Amino acid sequence: RKIAKHANADLVFAFVLCADAIVHVLAPSYTERCLKATDLLLAAAYISAQRAALSAAESSWLPLCLPRFEPSGYLHAAVSFLEPSIELSLVLVAADNSANTVAAFRNVALAVNDAFRRDGSLDAIRSAVTENCHTAQATQRLKIENGASKGSENSLIS
């Protein structure tokens, strides 16, 4: 709701990424074209692959090719880093990259970031990511320890 509240007419769709995971998608239901999962995953993978180059900036503007959504051209994605420590990004996608759209998307990203911080959403996301990360690491350690102690051929430790 925070994204939709601040969106403008230039917004084609938006999504939130946390590391390599898509956390939320905002896509209008009234358009002739619908956003396909393959295009969304392609966009997320492209942005995740560019993260190291993009992270030096607070936000970046990228051309984005989504062959099923727009087969005749490309779109433009404004990527804003809301919380670098957990790789939380807001991606706003537009059909053009005019100065007005760039400025409007910058304002949308600032407003969403402010709303996330004010209502505690950012803390909740950070906590969930940290908890899931620790759970995944603990599970991996148990698999390694159990595999090594049993002499399993599936063990990661030789």
Averaged pLDDT, please?
Answer: 76
Work out the radius of gyration. 19 Å
Structural class: alpha+beta
What is the tally of beta strands? 5
Could you give the distance between the termini? 50 Å
Structural write-up:
This protein is of the alpha+beta class. The protein is built from 5 helices and 5 strands. It has helices at residues 2-6, 37-49, 51-54, 99-118, 121-150, and strands at 11-18, 21-26, 59-64, 75-83, 88-94. The chain has a 5-stranded antiparallel sheet, with helices on both faces. The chain is globular and about 40 Å long. The chain starts with a helix and ends in an 8-residue tail after the last helix.
Q: Secondary structure elements and their pairing?
A:
Layout: H1 2-6, E1 11-18, E2 21-26, H2 37-49, H3 51-54, E3 59-64, E4 75-83, E5 88-94, H4 99-118, H5 121-150
Antiparallel strand pairs: 1-2, 1-5, 3-4, 4-5
Which keywords apply here?
single chain, 158 residues, alpha+beta, five-stranded antiparallel β-sheet, 5 helices, 5 strands
Can you summarize this structure?
With 158 residues, this protein is of the alpha+beta class. The protein has helices at 2-6, 37-49, 51-54, 99-118, 121-150, and strands at residues 11-18, 21-26, 59-64, 75-83, 88-94. It is globular and about 40 Å long.
